[in-house]
Every structure is written in C-alpha cells, then in structure tokens.
Prior knowledge:
The complex is a heterotrimer.
Chain A: H1 18-32, E1 49-54, H2 60-71, E2 75-80, H3 85-88, H4 92-101, E3 106-111, H5 116-120, E4 127-133, H6 139-153, E5 160-164, H7 171-182, E6 186-190, E7 206-208, H8 211-215, E8 220-223, H9 229-232, H10 239-246, H11 250-253, E9 261-263, H12 276-279, H13 286-304
Parallel strand pairs in A: 1-2, 1-3, 3-4, 5-6, 5-8, 6-7, 8-9
Chain B: E1 3-8, H1 10-28, E2 34-39, H2 42-58, E3 63-67, E4 98-106, H3 110-120, E5 127-135, E6 147-151, E7 159-163, E8 173-178
Parallel strand pairs in B: 2-3, 2-4, 4-5, 5-6
Antiparallel strand pairs in B: 1-8, 7-8
Chain C: E1 3-12, E2 17-26, E3 29-34, E4 44-47, E5 52-55, E6 57-62, H1 75-84, E7 87-92, H2 103-114, E8 119-124, H3 138-144, E9 148-149, H4 159-172, E10 175-178, H5 183-186, E11 191-192, H6 195-200, E12 204-205, H7 208-224, E13 228-230, H8 236-247, E14 252-256, H9 258-262, H10 284-296, E15 301-302, H11 311-314, H12 331-340, H13 347-361, E16 379-389, E17 408-418, E18 421-424
Parallel strand pairs in C: 1-4, 1-5, 6-7, 7-8, 8-9, 9-10, 10-13, 11-12, 13-14, 14-15
Antiparallel strand pairs in C: 1-2, 2-3, 5-16, 16-17, 17-18
Amino acid sequence: MTATWTRKDLLGMRDLSREEIEILLQTTKSFQEISLRPVKKVPALRGKTVANLFFEPSTRTRISFELAEKRLSADTINMVGSTSSMVKGESLKDTARNIESLKVDIVVMRHSSSGAPHRLAPILKASVINAGDGINEHPTQALLDMFTILEKKGSLEGLKVSFVGDILHSRVARSNIWGLTKMGAKVTVCSPKTLLPPEIEKLGVTPTTDIHEAVRNADVLNLLRIQLERQTESFFPSIREYANFYQINQEILKEAKPDVLIMHPGPVNRGVEITSEVVDGPYSVILEQVTHGLAVRMAVLYLLSGGVKEEEE
Amino acid sequence: MKQQKQVLDSEGIRRVLIRIAHEILERNKGTGDLVLIGVRTGGAHLAKRLASEIETIEKVQVLLGVVDITLYRDDLSELGPQAKVRETKIPFDITDKKVILVDDVLYTGRTIRAALDALIDFGRPQSIQLAVLADRGHRELPIKPDYVGKNIPTSQTETVEVRLVEDGKPKDELVILSQGEGTL
Amino acid sequence: MNLLIRGAHVVDPKNKVDEVLDLRIERNHIAAIGKSLEPATGGEIFEAKGLYLLPGLIDLHVHFREPGFEQKETIETGALAALRGGFVGCVSMPNTNPPCDHQSVIDNIIRKAREVPLHLFPAGTISKGRQGAELSEMADLKRAGIWAVTDDGDWVTDSLLMRRAMEYASMLGLLVISHCEDRRLSANGVMNEGLMSTRLGLKGIPHESEEVAVMRDIQLARLTGARLHVAHLSTARTVKLIREAKAEGIRVTAEVTPHHLSLTDASTEGYNTNFKMNPPLRTPEDVDAVQKGLEDGTIDCVATDHAPHTEEEKMYEFDEAPFGVIGLETSLGVCLTELVHAKKMTLAKLVERMSMRPAEILKLPNGYGEIKKSAEANVTLVDLNQDWIVRAEDFLSKSKNSCFIGKKLKGRVAATLCMGKLWDFQKGSHQ
C-alpha cells in the first residue's frame, strides 16, 4: 500500500516529504478530469464549510480556491480585507476563535505576514491551507507549477528549472525550491544580487546573477513578477535597467532548450520580466498553470477534508 | 486464521463473462448505443473483458469507460485519511446511451448508488443496467443487478474477493474469505 | 531587621572570598562576616547550609514600562520579578511614555521606586522625546537622579548629536548606553539574516546592522573620552570590536543578554513571537563568541534587557508582534545552566559579570557588587543544583513573554536580601 495523507494542514512545501508531494500530485491528476465534465461538480465536500480568509488582496488565488471548493460541493464563506488583523485590532487568536465558532472545517488563508498560518493552525481544529504567507510560502502555487511541468515533461527528476526575478520576496520561489529539490530537479535562481536571499545555496539550489546561466539548457523558466516598489527601495536602479538585463525575450530564449517551458505565477508585467511575444508564444504554459491550479486546490481540499489522527488536533 | 474457499476458477470466470455478454446483447438487441463503464478497480477490468467478449461475438467494439466513485461515497472522511482518488475516464458522451455499469462484487449497494450519481453528472443515458460478477446479498439500498455471474450466499463476517491477473494476481479466481476456525 | 545567615558558601570575587561563612545583619546592614557568628539580639536565623551567597545581582538593562505602559509592567511588578531573580538593583530604560527626557518624569519614577523594595537606577534619554534631534536636559536629569543616558530602542543616528551627547554626558560623569543598531540596515527585519531567515521566509536583520553602529560609537568614545556602554551585543564581530577598543584604551564596556548567551536563530522555527527580540538571536558561532567574550572579560556583564509585552501583543503575527522578552526571573538560572554547569565559566566569574562589574560600570557606591561589612545588606542566596522548569504561570512579572518557557534549568535563587529585607522563595510556592 502506498503512503496516505495524514496531515491536518498544508502550511508549506518545506515540511512535506517526497511521498506526500507525490500523493498530492497523483491526486491532482485524478481531479483534472472533473473540470471537463458536463456537470463540473462532485459531492466530496458536501456539508463541509470552507472559509477563505484573505488578509491580503488576491484575485487569482482566491478565485481558484473558491471555484475548487464549489466544484467539491463545499459551502464557502469569504472574508476579504486588505488590512492585516493587527490593523483591525484583532489578534490571530481572536480570528481563530471566531472561525471556530462558525464551525468551519477548512480555512484557506492568505496573509501578508510570514508564518501567520503556522501560528493559526495549532490553535484551530479546522484544517488550514496556506494560500500564501508573506514572503514565506505558497504551497498550492508550487504544486501547480510542479504539476504543470510533470504534465509536459513526464518527470521532475534531473530537470533544470530556473527562477528569474525577485527571489528574495517570492513565496512562489521558496515553495518551489522546497518542492522541486525534493523531487530531484536542479533548481537555479537568478536575480540581481540585491534580490537573492542570503545563503540560498544551502537550500540546494544554484544562485546566479547571470541571466544567461539561468537560461542556458533550462528545461523550465519560471518567471517572477517584478514590483515597482522594489525600485523605490533601491533593489535595482530602474525597471528599465532590470528589463534590459533580466527580461526573458525571444532572443535570450535561443539559449534555452528547444522545448523549454515558460511559466509565470501571474499577474504578468508584460514588457518587464517577460515580453508579450513570449507570454503568448508557443513555450508558454501560463494559462495551463491556471487550469492546473484548480485541480491542485481540489486535491488539497479533498485530502485535508479527511480524518486526522487525534493527537495532531 | 483466514479460511479461503474458491467459488469460481479462471475457467469459471471466463464462462460466466461469456454468458453475461450474451445476455447483454440479447436484452439490448445488439450493440446499438451500448457502452460499458466499469467501477474502479475490479469492475474496470471486468468491463474490459466483457467488451472483448462482445467484440468476439458481434465483431463490434463498444465504448468503454471507467468510473471512480470515491468522491461520491457516503462514508467519506468520517475517520482516518481520505481514500485514494483515481481517475475517472469516460471519454464519450453518455447521453441517450445504454450504459452497462460493471462491478465485481455487489454487496450493500452503496458503491452502485455512488456510481449512479457519478454517471448522472456525465449526461442523461437512455438506461443504466448493472452487471456484476458476484452478488453476495446483504443489500442496504434498493438496488438490483440486471446481470449476475454468480449468486453467493454469505454471512456478514465473510468477504468475497475477485482476483484478476490484471491486478497482478497469479490467476483469476473468485473466493470467499472467512475469519476464524475453519467452519467452511 | 536583624538576621543571621548561617553556613552559606560566600562567593565574593571583589574581596576574593570563596568559603562557607555566616553573615550577621543588623538594622539592614551587614554587621559581621565570619565563622560561627552569634545571632543578633532578637534576630532570626536563616539556615543557608548548601546555599551559595552572592553579592546582590545588578541588571543594567530592564524595561519597567512605567509610566505609560503599565499593562506590560509596573515598577512594582518589575521589582518583584527582579527580587525573584536575585536582583537587588536595576537600571530602568527611559523609553516610557512620556519618555524620561525631563526631570519631572524621573522625579515621578524615583518617587514610585521609593515604595518598592528594590534599588532602581533610572536612565534618562539622550535626546528630547528620543527623537535623536536635540539633547535632553542631562544635568537636570542627573540632579533628579539618573545614572546613565540612552535612547534605548533607537540608536542616535546623527553622529554629531552623539558626539555632543557623549561630551556632555562625560562632563556629568554619566554613563552613555548605546543600543547599537543601524535601523536602515535592519530594514524591516524581524530575525537574524542568514540561512534561517531564508528558510523561514522572514525578513532578516544582518549582523552588520549592529557592528556598523558599534564601530561608530567606539570611535566617538575615543574622540570624546566618554564612558560608552554597548547594550545587548549579539555578534562575534562586535565582541572583536569591543576587545580591540579596550586594548586601545578606549573607555567602552559591554553587556550581553542571557538569551544571546544561550539561544540561536534556529529557535525562530515555529514563528513563536517569544523568540522575536532586537537584536535578534544569532548563529551558534555568535553564541560561542559571546560566551567566550563574557568569560574573558571583553563583555563586562550580563544584562537581561527585560522587555515585558502583553500576551495580546505577542499573539500578533511574527512580523507585527513587538520585539522583546522578559528575563529577570530566568537570568541567573540560564547563566548557571549554560555557563557554570556547562563548565564554561566559574561561579566567581559569573558573579563578577552579574554583580561586581555592573556596580563598577554604574559607579555605584561601596557595598554594591561585593559583600562588605557595614554596607547595606543586598545579597542573593542561590541553590546551585536545584532543577526547575520555567513555567509561564510562575512569573511574577506582569508579562509572560519569556523565551525560556518549558526549558529545564539548573540553579535557582533561594532567597534575596535587599535593603536588608529577606525574600525567602523556598517557603513560597514558586517551585
């Protein structure tokens, strides 16, 4: 018998074993077909309540989770605010108590503070899914990225996957690093020195500031969004200069493998980290990522809705 | 000690499937609009075998699908980790088709209830008929098979197992397993 | 009060005493030190067999939060926590509300302090409103009763203002305590910058944010001749900088907290905000360096940076929760466990670091930091081998934000004698 999923929460890729990641990816495969049916809905989570707590604005992830919940027949409630609980004067503990009294089964949480879901999870009976915490992790995004690569390449083992962009502030990069290295991929992270996290190489990845090194022989290029505010914080002199030296365009893609995959977690800054022709080009799997995101989130919701060993509470 | 009693051997299973294939064709007057959908995992293998028997008789390939009923179970997530979900593959429209739902062992009927719910999400078939290799009784829902390979009276403490080479078993057989001191 | 402490193992490094002796206290003062002393008339006898008797501990860095943040701590609850931890004197930091930048605030603190059974040595601010723009009225503050100046919590970024502050303070004989941190370099960091911050996805504070500030302040101390005291140092290179400055004869002293002596940034793993402090917990190499620095005297003393925060505040997300942990009630236990029992330092040396040197740095009058006949009785009695587990519910401090909760320690304060008054914790339920 293969391993079974026994976790109450999905807080990050860091804690997961390779076997657990495999369960998630296999389950995702089974959920993929549901969205192709005439009736795109299964009763697996009927009677369950899922609360989407988004303490930070997000459209894509929230919509993806919400649709996944609906396709599993769960009842959903949304709490969306651009402010953190601190600003509202409510602590995490109070937030937790409120959720508890609504008899919610699963909490999907997006928060601007790293570790916020990790602190909420142990005090909640409900399962907690991290939908992005600060600059820490975004596990479902990493899973959908990995699933997209798997669908195209068949395996992750030995693939060169390069991340280009703001690695320092990227929860997407961080979750992918944990996941991909466990699955045997060779990960390269590329950004100006100012945006490389300290000692990142100790996580088993190759850091570089040279875009050519990242692109050369890459099987997958995963681009991260560059935010304007990083310019004002002097992480680089200008968006213009960043684009001149780190943009993925047709020209530089010639250095990649002929069947390279272009990925981006969105939203895309066309003309900054990536040109429009690459976004819409033949290597781009950006829209497939969105589709797979739905199946991944259904799989996660399904697995977490199961029973858990009591002592894990 | 688990006691084991063989009810059908590989030859027996083959004969039963040929008979069911004939019955299906007889009742449905040929293969028109006929599709076979197996319930994962045992039913899927049997559906495939039935399809090939039908092809031998009629020289026609019938459409073949697989349904995984895990997400439709009524005992999901009460205790313990979630059951493994496998892929459902029905690569055709079942609307106005005569669906033969195939399973290995019919017991409480709850699996079939779940499979029926799943099928309805794929369209509106002309009819759904149920074919099982073994019917061991103890129904908990008003479900009745249309084609039965073998009726096997059992007690609730026993289990009925269909072992097929497709599942990596050494040979095909239908067995009854019972706990305790060899009363069989 | 009159009291005979009988059979305690007295460790007084200043007077090179290390033997079992009796102490006779008369009218709150030490009347006699010797063997087989007769009890004072009408006095009690405290049987101290098996206990160590140390000069009362002194903490150069506590936050008693009064006035302004009485929900976190008050001078009264802070004093009780200090006594429980074996302390007889504390330097209270001036980041109150209003801040201690005016003699009226100090007057108020000193009036409150008179009502508690602990010696309080308030520090005043360097700048008005701790804004780093204009000097506080230091001479006035000194007359009101301050012992040091600091803008603790904020480093004085304006180098010219810091030069003037040091010159002015040295004229008054005031100690200048510096919270050395270049805030710009700390950016919005919440833990040590390094592999752990990368692993945990938390923003980091580099070692250099402290070291850059220490370097400047050392140079200014050279320039001005002021007595500079570097608060809560945390990195190996800071230890080196202090060592070099001392070798050059610059008047600089330094303190380290019990948590920087014993914990690393790996503790941040569970996003527990009781491990969020500034400076942050550093690496094992830094812990090793500050332990060695404390042993060889580069670092003069242990100070707790006792920083109470309410449970509500510490319940916030890691990024939002305030920096700081309490430390008074665990300081000696942690140091005994991690340094003395771990054979990294002798008990006598630890007493120097926790009592003798703090008294010297503060230039306290005779009798502090030593066991001296005719001085006021301020002593700490310790059961060196008592095993105990730190529990949140046992703290006398108003706040429970300790990074040592659940930790097993060896060595605990049995009693504190402060201003001649005996606090016997062996009788209480605080086990």
